Amino acid sequence: MAIALKVELASLRQGDGLTAAFEGRAHEVPVSFFEADMEEGGSVPLHRHPYAELWIVADGEVAFTVDGESGPARIGEVVIVPAGIAHCFQNTGRGRLQMTCIHASDTFITEWL
Fold this sequence. Notes:
Strand order of the largest sheet: 1-2-9-4-7
Largest sheet: 5 strands, antiparallel
Radius of gyration: 14 Å
Mean pLDDT: 91
Strand content: over 45%
Helix content: under 10%
């Protein structure tokens, strides 16, 4: 099977060089993602999206707060948040947190709360 499109993660790195962002709209696909490498204690504040979002924890430990309830996620686990639900997360492990964050949208739409 031929590969229709190949994108190097390095070309998607943003400001700090630790997070890669892929918006599907630019490539005519219906999903977007972040490949995150977060420092110990790092966090993302409360927000929501008009579409579902999921994270695949590749390394480390993270605490998610989803609709007011908190809980941990560890390497090898997947966290899913339905559309419109407020959520945030923080790296609670020792060392770096690595996750893939998949947005069920061809572009990122975020309402910061």
